[in-house]
Specification:
By secondary structure, this protein is of the alpha+beta class. It folds into five domains: 55 residues, Ubiquitin-like (UB roll) (Roll), CATH 3.10.20; 55 residues; 55 residues; 73 residues, Resuscitation-promoting factor rpfb (Resuscitation-promoting factor rpfb fold, Single Sheet); 110 residues, Beta Barrel (Barwin-like endoglucanases), CATH 2.40.40.10. It is 16% helix and 41% strand. The chain contains five helices and 24 strands. The strands form six sheets. It has a six-stranded mixed beta barrel with strand order 19-23-20-22-21-24. A four-stranded mixed β-sheet has the order 2-1-4-3, with no helix packed on it. Strands 6-5-8-7 form a four-stranded mixed β-sheet, covered by helices on one side. The radius of gyration is 63 Å and the shape is rod-shaped. The N and C termini lie far apart (213 Å).
Length: 400
C-alpha cells in the first residue's frame, strides 16, 4: 500500500470518529435539554400524608393523579383536601388522612365506624353516639386514640340510694353493689348492713338500702309496785277498811343494751339491775264485825248528841238488783222486824244507832248509790210498806 493510500485511510477514520463524537454530543445535549425542560415543567407541591409532610415536584394534573403517582390507595372513608378532582397548581398543599376502623361497645352492643379522627370525643360524634358525664368510658373524651382501636362505654342509669333515713337518686353503671358503694364513697360501720346482695349487679331503677345499726347503753330508774297486805280487824264493821301503813313504791336502776336501726329502737336487753330503794308494803285492816240491829219499836228517843232533818225514802231487800245483804254484812231478809237505814257514810258512819221520826230506832247498816248527803233510805220488808212511806222530810237523831 502506498504512502498516499495510508494517509487517506487514516484521514477517513479520524473523520468518522469526529462525526460519531459530534452525534453523541448532540444526542446527550438533546437529552440534557429534554430533562431540564421536563423537570422544569413540574409543579412544586406539598403533600401531607397522615401528618407526614413531603415537598414534591409533579406533572400530575389533579390531586387524584398526584396520589396515584405516590402509590397511595384512596378509600371512600379517607379524608383528602382539596378534593380529588382539583387541578394541581404550583405551591399547592395536599392533605391526605387515611381512615381506620374503630370498634365501639355500648353496654356490650358492638358497632364499628370508619374515621380519620383521633380524639375520642370526635370519633363518638362522628358515630352519632352521645355520652353523659355519668357514663363510664374506657378512654377519656379528650384523649387521642393512638394504639388502640376499641372504645368501651357503659351507659349510666338512675338508682335509688337509701342510706339510713336519707333517700336520694344517684347515677350508676352496670356494676356490683359493692363497687357501687365504693364509687359513692359510702362508709359502713361494723354493725351496719346492706339489704342487697353485695355481689349482685345493679339494674336500672333498683333501690340500694343501707340500714344504720348502733348499740347504746341506757340506764333508767324505774318504780317497783308495793305489795298490799290485809289483816282482819274485829273492831271494824264488816266491809270497812282502814289503812294501817301507807304503801310506798320502790326504785330500781336498770341498765339496758338498746339496739337501734336508723335511729329507731328495735331491741332492748336488760344487762344489770340494782335496787336503789325497796318498796314499803301497804297494810290494810279489813273489818269483820257484824252488827245486829235493835228491833225495839219504843218511840222514846235516848239521849241524842246530834239531830238534823233528812230526806227519807224507802226500799226493800227484794228490789231489782238487791242481794239481800247490806253493805255492813247484815242479812236483810232474815228478820221481818229488822229496823235499818241506808246512809251516806260520810254523814252518818255505818254502825251508828239512830232514831228516825215516824220510823223509830234503827241502825245505819247499808249504803246506796243514790244516798248522798242528808238523805236516807229506810228498810221495809214489803213493797206496800215502802210505797206507803213514799218520800218525806223527817228528823233524825244520832244516839250516844
Amino acid at each position: 500500500m502506498t504512502k498516499f493510500s495510508m494517509k487517506n485511510l487514516f484521514s477517513g477514520s479520524l473523520r468518522f470518529k469526529q462525526t460519531t463524537v459530534r452525534i453523541y454530543s448532540l444526542v446527550l445535549f438533546a437529552l440534557v435539554i429534554s430533562f431540564v425542560l421536563f423537570e422544569g415543567t413540574k409543579s412544586p407541591v406539598v403533600l401531607t400524608a397522615n401528618g407526614e409532610e413531603q415537598h414534591l415536584f409533579t406533572h400530575a394534573n389533579t390531586v387524584a393523579e398526584l396520589l396515584e403517582e405516590k402509590d397511595i390507595d384512596i378509600t371512600e372513608f379517607d379524608k383528602v383536601s382539596p378534593s380529588l378532582n382539583t387541578e394541581i397548581t404550583r405551591g399547592m398543599v395536599v392533605n391526605w388522612e387515611q381512615a381506620r376502623v374503630v370498634n365501639i361497645s355500648v353496654d356490650g352492643e358492638q358497632t364499628s365506624v370508619w374515621t380519620t379522627e383521633s380524639k375520642v370525643k370526635d370519633i363518638l360524634e362522628e358515630a352519632n353516639i352521645t355520652v353523659t358525664e355519668h357514663d363510664n368510658i374506657s378512654v377519656a373524651l379528650d384523649e387521642n386514640l393512638v394504639d388502640n382501636n376499641n372504645i368501651d362505654i357503659q351507659k349510666a342509669f338512675e338508682v335509688t340510694l337509701v342510706d339510713g333515713l336519707e333517700e336520694r337518686k344517684v347515677w350508676s353503671t352496670s356494676t356490683t353493689v359493692a363497687n357501687f358503694l365504693k364509687q359513692q364513697d359510702i362508709k359502713l360501720n361494723e354493725l351496719d348492713r346492706v339489704e342487697n346482695d353485695l355481689e349482685s349487679v345493679i339494674s336500672p331503677k333498683e333501690k340500694i338500702t343501707i340500714v344504720r345499726v348502733e348499740k347504746v347503753t341506757d340506764v333508767v330508774e324505774e318504780t317497783v309496785a308495793f305489795a298490799v297486805e290485809t289483816k282482819s280487824d274485829s273492831s271494824l264493821l264488816k266491809g270497812q277498811e282502814k289503812v294501817v301503813t301507807q304503801g310506798e313504791e320502790g326504785i330500781v336502776s336498770r341498765t339496758y343494751e338498746v339496739t337501734k336501726e336508723n335511729g329507731k329502737e328495735v331491741a332492748k336487753v336488760l344487762k344489770t339491775e340494782e335496787v336503789v330503794k325497796k318498796p314499803t308494803t301497804k297494810v290494810v285492816s279489813v273489818g269483820t264485825k257484824v252488827v245486829t240491829a235493835n228491833v225495839s219499836r219504843n218511840n222514846a228517843p235516848e239521849t241524842s248528841s246530834k239531830e238534823f232533818y233528812v230526806t227519807a225514802t224507802a226500799y226493800t231487800p227484794y228490789c231489782n238488783g238487791c242481794s239481800g245483804t247490806s253493805a255492813s254484812g247484815i242479812n236483810l231478809r232474815a228478820n221481818s222486824d229488822l229496823k235499818l237505814i241506808a246512809v251516806d257514810p260520810n254523814v252518818i258512819p255505818l254502825g251508828t244507832k239512830v232514831w228516825v221520826e215516824g220510823y223509830g230506832y234503827a241502825i245505819a247498816g247499808d249504803t246506796g248509790g243514790s244516798i248522798k248527803g242528808n238523805k236516807i233510805d229506810v228498810l221495809f220488808q214489803t213493797k206496800g210498806e215502802a210505797y206507803k212511806w213514799g218520800r218525806k222530810k223527817v228528823l233524825i237523831k244520832i244516839l250516844d
